[in-house]
Amino acid sequence: MTSPDNHHPRDFKSLPLQPALLKNLQDLGYQRLTEIQAAALPAIVEGRDVIGQAKTGSGKTVAFGLGLLHKLNVERFRVQALVLCPTRELADQVARELRKLARAIHNIKILTLCGGMPFGPQIGSLKHGAHIVVGTPGRIEDHLRKGNLDLANVDTLVLDEADRMLDMGFQEVLDQILEQLPEERQTLLFSATYPKTIDALAGRVLRKPVKVEVAAAH
Ligand code: ADP
Ligand code: MG
């Protein structure tokens, strides 16, 4: 277990991120890292699996978003990152933040796939392709089962608000999605709480994870 301390970077510039991403962070007015970012980003950028425990509003989206954008190859028009969120509202929030972070990457396509939305436009968007898919487990699994979505090239999986996903009964659906993902991948799991069920999920889904915990929002 690590917690933020003086050994952690304080600003984005001290991270080995692509210059275009760093420049964009500056344009967005992001300078200092939040605690969870300082604790998690070095391991994330290194490609390690990470379990991050931190409350809402602590800056988790920027932590995993920079990790997946940093290694994304925009020339390769395949789904390279999958972000699973418990609700449509959260998925939309994450997609919005990722689009802000990705402004410096031209032609990047980020697609949201959530339940409660009509299938037609989602299928149309999937035919055009995407680099990043953000969505809720039920709808993602639905598209997988129907052959609309190919996750064979995913090299980053993010489970955002994992505790809420389990509370909502997504365990089985998550397992079905996980079966469709390459074993060779980076997995980042974020959760506000850390009950035994999350520990069990992490044990099955992550490989030698680095665990970072931040008590309160920044
Ligand atoms: P969480 O996922 O932990 O709830 P978010 O990633 O959505 O938190 O971040 C919360 C808010 O803080 C967002 O509006 C985001 O733009 C902002 N934010 C995140 N990191 C930083 C930072 N390093 N500096 C300034 N603002 C930040
Ligand atoms: Mg969040």
From TrEMBL:
Keywords: ATP-binding, Helicase, Hydrolase, Nucleotide-binding
One MF term in the entry's GO annotations: helicase activity
Superkingdom classification of source: Bacteria
Motif (Q motif): 10-38
Signal peptide (from-to): none
The Helicase ATP-binding domain, residue ranges: 41-212
Keyword flag ATP-binding: yes
Location of the DEAD-box RNA helicase Q domain: 10-38
Lipid metabolism among keywords: no
Similarity annotation: Belongs to the DEAD box helicase family.
Protein name, UniProt field: ATP-dependent RNA helicase DbpA
Boundaries of the shown chain within the full protein: 1 to 218 of 467
